Amino acid sequence: MAADDGALLGNWYVHRFPISRRKALVFMSETTFLSFILLQGKRAVTLDTLPTMLLAGLEQLLVMRGIPQEAVDRAFLHYQEGRFSKTDSRSALGTLNDIVFRYQWMIDHAGGLDACDLTDIIMRINETPHSRLGCDSWDAVQAKLLRLC
Question: pLDDT for 79-116, tens place per residue?
């Protein structure tokens, strides 16, 4: 999902994958690799519901990480409209696939969806430094978001 050029968290990638006999969606920021997963419910996910799912999941993640609502609201100003397209960025797809693998492994290692602490897994994955970002992790993202206050 593409955002306008001033979006701090950039464009977002979304990918559906299986986990513990369920379908999950991983959302990943192109510029920060910030990510979270949402489990698919009984209703079909459509192009109309994806933006709402992205913003609701992202807001929940940011608030749980202690980002003030004012900064969340300012970050969301750049996501008033969205566009969908496929990517040809092999680098971004490689990072997304790596993040999906880590979610699957951590959930399975913790005993599956019924036994794991999914919030803790999401937080730990976002604390992982990324070499493509100069080894930045959540701390760098948080500092950028806090400057929006």
Answer: 776 666 777 778 888 889 999 999 999 999 999 999 99
Position 104 in a domain: yes
Residue 2, in any domain of the structure: no
CATH code for the domain in which residue 120 is found: 3.30.420
Phi-psi region of 17 (alpha: psi -120 to 50; beta: other; left: phi over 0): beta
CB burial of 99-113 (b: ≥16 within 10 Å; e: otherwise) equals: bbebbbebbeeeeee
Q: What is the pLDDT of residues 109-130, one digit of tens each?
A: 999 999 999 999 999 998 887 6
Give domain status of residue 83, yes or no. Answer: yes
Residue 5 located in a structural domain:
no
The rounded distance, in Å, linking the Cα atoms of 102 and 113 is 14
The structure's pTM equals 0.85
Q: What CA–CA distance (Å, rounded) separates 31 from 140?
A: 11
